[in-house]
Amino acid sequence: MQLFSDSLHNEFAGIATAWIGAGAADYGEVMAIAEAFPRDGDDAAWSAAADRHVELAEEALTAGHEITGQGHLFRAVGFYGVAIKPWFGTPVDQRMRDGLENLTAAFERAIVLGPRLRHVRMCMHGRTGQV
Q1: Using CA atoms, how far apart are residues 122 and 131, in angstroms rounded to an integer?
Q2: CATH second-level architecture of 7-130?
Q3: Other C-beta atoms lying within 10 Å of the C-beta of residue 45
Q4: Alpha carbons 107 and 49: distance in angstroms, whole number
Q5: By the 8 A CB rule, do 5 and 39 touch?
Q6: Mean pLDDT for the chain?
Q7: Across 47-56, 66-75, 96-105, 109-118, least confident range
Q8: Which residues, including other chains, have CB under 8 Å from residue 130's CB and lie 6 or more apart?
Q9: Is the pLDDT of residue 74 over 70?
Q10: Cβ neighbours of 95 (radius 10 Å)
């Protein structure tokens, strides 16, 4: 289904919809972002959705709902990841820098919440590393 008239932005929406199964997006929310997206292409709809999830995470964490807060932070990470894609290039657009900082901050907060994660050593292509 074509959500955006612009094929590049429709491809970005495809990235977000691919994460639905992992709980990192909701189809209705992606549709709402597409509807909020201005036709001139200079948009903050993805970032606004990410910012909204950061706010919802704050509310959940304040109320003691760690898993819910973590879920909202991971959704924010996904939407910030889509938001920065149109701004790749040289010179680096400040929106790209800001978006990447927001993405990193949300991710760093999310990974320490909920079930504890641990580093795992694995071998790929004959090389062992820590992930």
Answers
A1: 8
A2: Up-down Bundle (1.20)
A3: 18
A4: 15
A5: yes
A6: 82
A7: 109-118
A8: 119, 120, 121
A9: yes
A10: 15
Domain ranges of the chain: 7-130
Cα separation, 97 vs 65, in Å, equals 30
pTM value > 0.85: no
Cβ 61 vs Cβ 69: under 8 Å: yes
Residue reference for tokens 């993405």: 103
Query: Which tens digits make up the pLDDT trace of 5-50?
Result: 777 778 888 888 887 877 778 888 888 888 887 665 556 888 899 9
Q: DSSP letter at 85? A: G
Q: DSSP string covering 6-55, please?
A: SHHHHHHHHHHHHTGGGTS--HHHHHHHHHHS-TTS---HHHHHHHHHHH
Amino acid 82 reads V
